[in-house]
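To whoever is on call:

I kicked off a structure prediction for a single chain this morning and the downstream step that reads the tokens threw a length-mismatch warning. I double-checked the sequence; it's 301 residues and nothing unusual in it as far as I can see. Pasting both halves so you can look.
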Amino acid sequence: MYDIIIIGGGPAGLTAALYACRANKSVLVIEKGSFGGQITYSPRVENIPGFLDVTGNEFAEKLVEQVLSQNAEVECAQALKIVDNGEFKTVVTDSGEFTSKSVIIATGAKHRLLGLDREEDFIGEGISFCAVCDGAFYENKTVAVIGGGNSALQEAILLSELAKKVYIIQNLDFFTGEEKLVNQLKSKDNVEIILGAVVESISGNTDFEGITIKNVSDEKTTDLILDGMFVAIGLVPQNEEFLDLIKLDDRGYVVSGEECKTSSEGIFVAGDCRTKNIRQVTTAVSDGAIAALAACEYIDK
């Protein structure tokens, strides 16, 4: 039996493992994909304290190396459910069952994709999801933002301060975001708003060169030459397996405040999979530390 099982090997989960190990707890990290999470898609990251710049993969590798040096164990498997047996928890995976005194859920949230051919091939190589993270790479260049909610509008406003030209493309005939943000965009000379259109395809063989968009009403297509595209059509939290055990909100995020506790005693949450306003790598690692210390306190009591 482990003291703590952490489900998810992104920045939140790995930071939780680091703090738990340094508190002399036995730790198992279960990750179904590649360690590092969404940050591994970023070819260059400049907003992590202590690093002038670092690739997402390099940052993830350093985290994994640090956690393993503290004697954490790792398991490549998909968690299917958590069984709460009171004093201990059982995490059922597709490669076996593991028990612990406490569990930290750090499964993250995936960016919702457009569903285009070769879309995933261009992630980090022309397709981005975060203007705060990647906007500087498109200074004096031409980009498009896909989406019409507050997140998309905020991305477009930020990019308008950097890029030469910004298209914002929404599939509806109106924006769903706040009117104040819409008015800000309309005041920008370098922003072009395209409503009632969807992205039909991506242009370029090895390099991202642009997109083809289709008007929803008349199906007329238009080619846009771009240096980059920011997709802002929402996030998908990875919490479906825990629906019967812990409380989720109507969007599927684990209901939790800054203390990183869930509705089930002894089960904690960290990172982008919980309810929160800001989802950045720095807030994820903060959650990891808080969740680990809370789990240690729970075990010690």
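Update from on-call: the warning came from a stale cache, not from the record. Cleared it. Sanity check on the structure: The mean pLDDT is 94.
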